[in-house]
Amino acid sequence: MSMRMYNQKQVEQLRKRYPKGTRLCLDFMDEAGMPPGLQGTVAFIDDAGQIHMHWENGRSLAIVPGVDSFHRVDGSANEVPKDEKAKKGRSLQR
Question: 20 by DSSP, 3-state: which?
Fold first, then answer.
């Protein structure tokens, strides 16, 4: 399968959708050591539309949209709700 080339308009859309710092989760990449569920942070998107990443396993492989599958991770989903933090704080004060 040949790598899909994105035109400038598509690349701009990718950059708007996945700005630097966006958290992504890998669903599938045909690469050893890159398991489903691995998360990372967008570093930049190049002119070919590849999403360059800083992965939690220390690697920096780019995601190729249309070849690799992934989804966006909303930061708020990983945060402990404020009332949970408050409960923890109170229990520590005993």
Answer: coil
